[in-house]
Design a protein that fits this description.
about 140 residues, alpha+beta, about 15% strand
Length: about 140
């Protein structure tokens, strides 16, 4: 059975109501908009995972090389996530009207509203994660 359903009672107990964790590391909780607490319409705009064991293997046991490679990968990940956000600045919500005009993303935009605005101020997130800490050490 899908883990979100199995954990329904615990999620309600801890948070006060059910929020969909999207089956991954992203757990978008309640969002306040105009004094109202919203549980739907949250979005994760992008997810990147750093593979720490791969960086360690590429560093070949050299700790300084590991930290240098990690810094480079972090910068690349940041650039990728920021590019994802920047691309939304040019999205016309009339192209996918079901998402932005008919409520699938939790909003009903008018013809002259900006898509990018609905993702600001905490309504959406971008996620940078990592795997393999134990294996890296």
């Amino acid at each position: 059975m899908y883990p979100d359903i199995l954990n329904y009672d615990q999620v309600v107990k801890v948070t006060g109501s059910f929020k969909t964790p999207m089956g991954c590391r992203s757990f978008l909780g309640v969002y306040e908009e105009n004094g109202e607490m919203l549980h739907e319409g949250r979005n994760n705009l992008g997810v990147i995972s750093l593979n720490l064991p791969r960086i360690a293997i590429e560093a070949k046991g050299d700790e300084a090389a590991f930290w240098s490679l990690l810094d480079k990968r972090l910068e690349l990940a940041k650039k990728a996530l920021m590019t994802r956000i920047a691309r939304l600045e040019n999205v016309k919500h009339v192209l996918p009207p079901i998402l932005y005009m008919e409520g699938a993303c939790g909003v009903r935009l008018k013809a002259d509203d900006s898509v990018a605005e609905i993702f600001k101020h905490g309504r959406a997130s971008i996620s940078l994660g990592y795997i393999g800490v134990h294996e890296t050490i």
